[in-house]
C-alpha cells in the first residue's frame, strides 16, 4: 500500500515531524523519530534515508574508525551504499584531548566515496594533539607520522565550504596544514589560535609556503573572525615556488622578496588598522575579515584581496594584483567615506586621518617600480567630501605622490543613480569625463 502514496505526501509528512522533542539536542531527537518511521516498511526507509544520513557527526577516533570501516568494507553492504550517497555534511567534534584522528578522513577516504559531500565542519574545544604525538619537522605535524604527506588526486576534495572553529594549534604551521588540506572554495576560520602569535613575522613564512602547493582549486576565500591574527592566512593562498599547470588551478605565485611586503599591507588594514571605524566596531561585536585569491576570467589577472566588513556593511578593502612573474603590479584600496550605520558614525576627517596611509605609502613604495599604480577608490554622496578626503590622503602618501603613482577614483551616490569619474590629485583635480548613465559605472567598482 505504501508504494501507492504520492512522494509529495511522504515529503510533507517528514517535514512536519516534530524536531524539538529534546530541546538540548533537537537534531538527535529528530533522527530518532525518523529512524522509527523508517522501520514501517521499505518504502518509508527509502524516503527517510536522505534525511537521516544527510548530516553525520563524528566525535572520536572510534567514531571515525567505524565510519571508515563502513565506507571501506570488503563486501558491499546496505549501509555502505546508503551512507555514501546521502552524506552532505560532516561534523567532526573533538572536546577532549586525544591522538590526532581528524586527518584520517582525508587520508583514507577518496572523494568518490562521498560524491554528494559539500560541507565539513571541524569543531573542537581542546588542542588537537600533544606535542609528543607530532613530527615537529613536518609541515603537517598534526598528522600521523606514517601517513603520506602527498595525497593522490582522488583524495583532493573540492568542497563549496568548510569551517574550523575554536581550535588551538601549537604553531600556525599546524593551522595552515589543516586549512590547506581541504580544497574548498570558502573556509570559515572562527576562534583559531596558536602559541605566540606575536612571534610570527611576514619575513618567516612556513616551509610549506616556499616549497609546495597545497590545493588545486580556483578562486578561494578564507573568512576570519576572532582569530589570533588575520594576515598569516594569506599564506594559505600563495606559494613562493613556481608551480606547473593552469594558472586558475594553483596557488598564486608571489616572488619571495615581495611576499613579506604584501603581508604587511594586509596587516596594515587588518590586524594593525587604527581607523576610527575599525576601532568602534572592535569595541562592539568585532569585524569579519575575508582574504581571497582571485583570477579574472577575462584578462587572466590574479590578485590577493582583503575585505573588512561589519556584517553586510563593508568597512574598507584592499586588493593587490600580481603578475605571472610573481611581482605586485598595482594596488587598490576601496572605501565608503559616508557613515553607513550608527557604529560607523565617525566623521570623514577622522577616517582620513586615522587610517594609516603613511604605512601603506611606505610598504607600497618598497615594492619598487614594478608596482605602477596605487589607487584609492572612494564612494561618497558629494564631491566636496571626496576632494577633502583625497587631499588628506595625498598629503600623507608623499612617496607615491612624488613618484606620480597615486591616483583616485570615486563614485557619487544620487539615490539609486551613480556618476563615476577618475582623477589624479597630482595633476590638479577631477577630470570632466564622467558616466552619466548609472549602467555606465566602470567595472572597477566591485563587491569584493
Describe it for me?
There is one protein chain. The protein has 448 residues and is an alpha/beta fold. Among the domains are: 1-53, no CATH class; 268-448. It has helices spanning 7-15, 26-38, 42-53, 61-71, 78-86, 104-108, 172-181, 207-211, 259-269, 276-283, 348-354, 357-365, 383-396, 398-402, and strands at 55-58, 89-94, 119-124, 158-159, 161-165, 168-169, 183-184, 186-190, 193-194, 220-225, 238-239, 252-253, 288-295, 302-310, 313-322, 328-336, 373-380, 406-414, 417-424, 429-430. The strands form four sheets. It has a 14-stranded mixed beta sheet. A two-stranded parallel ribbon has the order 4-7. Strand 15 (313-322) and strand 16 form a beta hairpin. Helix 2 packs antiparallel against helix 3 and helix 9 (259-269) packs antiparallel against helix 12. The chain is elongated. It starts with 6 loop residues before the first helix and ends in an 18-residue tail after the last strand.
Specify Rg, calculated over alpha carbons. 26 Å
State the total count of DSSP E strands: 20
Reported for the largest beta sheet, the result is: 14 strands, mixed
Strands in their spatial order, largest beta sheet: 1-2-3-5-8-10-13-14-15-16-17-18-19-20
Helical content, roughly?
25-40%
Determine the N-to-C terminus distance: 55 Å
Low-confidence stretches: 20-24, 127-154, 341-345, 415-421, 423-448
Strand content: 15-25%
Q: Mean pLDDT score, rounded?
A: 72
Q: What would you call the shape?
A: elongated
SS class: alpha/beta
Amino acid at each position: 500500500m505504501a508504494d501507492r502514496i504520492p512522494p509529495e505526501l511522504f515529503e510533507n509528512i517528514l517535514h512536519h515531524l516534530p524536531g524539538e522533542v529534546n530541546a538540548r539536542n533537537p537534531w538527535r531527537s529528530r533522527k530518532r523519530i525518523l529512524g522509527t518511521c523508517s522501520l514501517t516498511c521499505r518504502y518509508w526507509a527509502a524516503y527517510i534515508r536522505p534525511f537521516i544520513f544527510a548530516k553525520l557527526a563524528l566525535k572520536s577516533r572510534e567514531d571515525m574508525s567505524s565510519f571508515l570501516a563502513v565506507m571501506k568494507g570488503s563486501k558491499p553492504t546496505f549501509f555502505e551504499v546508503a551512507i555514501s550517497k546521502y552524506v552532505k555534511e560532516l561534523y567532526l567534534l573533538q572536546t577532549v584531548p586525544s591522538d590526532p584522528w581528524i586527518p584520517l578522513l582525508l587520508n583514507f577516504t577518496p572523494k568518490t566515496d562521498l560524491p554528494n559531500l559539500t560541507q565539513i565542519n571541524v569543531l573542537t574545544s581542546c588542542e588537537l594533539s600533544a606535542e609528543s604525538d607530532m613530527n615537529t619537522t613536518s609541515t603537517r605535524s598534526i598528522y600521523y607520522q606514517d601517513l603520506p604527506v602527498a595525497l593522490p588526486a582522488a583524495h583532493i576534495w573540492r568542497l563549496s565550504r568548510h569551517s574550523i572553529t575554536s581550535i588551538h594549534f601549537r604553531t600556525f604551521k599546524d593551522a595552515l596544514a589543516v586549512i590547506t588540506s581541504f580544497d574548498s572554495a570558502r573556509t570559515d576560520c572562527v576562534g583559531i589560535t596558536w602559541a605566540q602569535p606575536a612571534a610570527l613575522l611576514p619575513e618567516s613564512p612556513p616551509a610549506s609556503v616556499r616549497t609546495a602547493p597545497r590545493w588545486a582549486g580556483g578562486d578561494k576565500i578564507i573568512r576570519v573572525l576572532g582569530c589570533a591574527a588575520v594576515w598569516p592566512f594569506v599564506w594559505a593562498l600563495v606559494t613562493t615556488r613556481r608551480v606547473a599547470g593552469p594558472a586558475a588551478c594553483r596557488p598564486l605565485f608571489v616572488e619571495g622578496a615581495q611576499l613579506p611586503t604584501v603581508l604587511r599591507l594586509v596587516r596594515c588594514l587588518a590586524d594593525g588598522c587604527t581607523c576610527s571605524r575599525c576601532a568602534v566596531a572592535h569595541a562592539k561585536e568585532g569585524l569579519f575579515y575575508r582574504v581571497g585569491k582571485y583570477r579574472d576570467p577575462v584578462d587572466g589577472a590574479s590578485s590577493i584581496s582583503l575585505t573588512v566588513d561589519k556584517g553586510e556593511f563593508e568597512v574598507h578593502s584592499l586588493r593587490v594584483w600580481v603578475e605571472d612573474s610573481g611581482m605586485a603590479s598595482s594596488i587598490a584600496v576601496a572605501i565608503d567615506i559616508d557613515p553607513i550605520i550608527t557604529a560607523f558614525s565617525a566623521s570623514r576627517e577622522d577616517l582620513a586621518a586615522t587610517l594609516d596611509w603613511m604605512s601603506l605609502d611606505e610598504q607600497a613604495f618598497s615594492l619598487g617600480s614594478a608596482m605602477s599604480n596605487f589607487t584609492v577608490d572612494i564612494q561618497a554622496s558629494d564631491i566636496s567630501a571626496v576632494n577633502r578626503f583625497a587631499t588628506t590622503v595625498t598629503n600623507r602618501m608623499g612617496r607615491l605622490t612624488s613618484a606620480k603613482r597615486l591616483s583616485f577614483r570615486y563614485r557619487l551616490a544620487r539615490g539609486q543613480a551613480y556618476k563615476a569619474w577618475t582623477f589624479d590629485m597630482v595633476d590638479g583635480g577631477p577630470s570632466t569625463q564622467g558616466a552619466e548613465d548609472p549602467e555606465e559605472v566602470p567595472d572597477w567598482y566591485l563587491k569584493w
